[in-house]
Amino acid sequence: MITVVGMGAGAPPGADVAAGAELVVGGRRNLDAVRLPEGAERVVLGALAPALDTVAEYVAKERAVVVLASGDPGFFGIVRALAERFGPERLDVRPGVSSVAAAFARVGLPWDDAVVASAHGRELRTAVNVCRAHPKVAVLTGPGAGPAELGAALRADPRVLVVASALGSAEERVERVTPAEAAVRDWGAAVSVVLCLDEARTLGPVRTVAGPPRPTAAGWALDEAEFAHRDSMITKFEVRALALARLGPRPGDLVWDVGAGSGSVAVECARLGAAVTAVEKTPDGVARVRANAAAHGVDVRAVHGAAPTVLSDLDDPDAVFVGGGGPELPAIVAQCARRARRAVVVAMAALDRVPAARRALLDAGLECDGVLLQSSRLAPLPGDVTRLAATNPVFLLWGVRPHSRTEGVAP
Hints:
Blueprint lengths: L1 E6 L15 E4 L1 H5 L8 E4 L3 H13 L4 E6 L8 H8 L4 E4 L4 H8 L8 E4 L5 H10 L2 E5 L6 H7 L6 E6 L7 E5 L1 H5 L7 E7 L39 H11 L6 E5 L5 H8 L3 E6 L2 H13 L5 E4 L14 E4 L6 H11 L3 E6 L5 H10 L3 E7 L2 E6 L3 E6 L3 E7 L8 E2 L1
């Protein structure tokens, strides 16, 4: 049997928690906090694989093993690796208070509506994009992905960082800082968790289901009437439906909506959990994007400027929707295709622009496909009859890079 004990953030489990163990595995701080049985082997966790191999040797001989972990070892912790290697039936898990629960408790906030992202041994950009998209996020940090790096990435975002260090110990510190302040500090190795908060929205409504709030409107590919727009200059819902399917926006992603117009695609991507930057060259368009985002309760960063020039100042996206461009379209698509990690989707009303846009996607190494969408909607006629009203045809072109990855995000 492998006994897994959570330590650190809540009440200490006691110095004799490892009593009877022949092998004790854990981080150095946790090992130093307990009394080891005489003759027990001690393994300081560094690389996980060698430690698991040592555990396997003891398990094979039915010798007692204790693994010391921080907080709740079943929450982004070692329980997953142990269960995969040895089977859950061999584990006796005794969870402590997770660092996430402890940090929210320290600042007096509920966390049933929080999103949790792990940057420990994972890409920091996923956690950064979750912080951009949601008002209440807990980030589990690691080497090279701590408060300084998180703050540097979020300098332009209206967020407050709560940095919780050495939770449950005599050296515990909980500090509120701006991202810019966090970026220039040396935080050391004792950081337990970082909360990223939009303080105007930290207290949401009473919940019956944990996790980030779901969109108030059902479904996706919303009707055009759900958005403020000018002279029907909006991506129609039939086009939006396929574009969203090819973009695949999800928590941890960054999506660009270039030539955003009303921002309907940007808002829909944000409703599906992605961080979104909408690029629009007209001031009234920028205002319209922001109004639509606010009306749907999502965060969309609206950037005023002309593509492709303004794109050089933006972080690399996972996916891009290009809904405008005029004569600059080939250059816009080319830059988007070079920088997108997963997909670029281009909507065009002018057939003449399709070959150049397709060539730009192919030259960037993307696999390219497309379709001409011609839909007819039901429309009433006098006499209680119905006709089919054709919408303008739109060519939707997409390029996909043959890899994608999302990890480290919860609820």
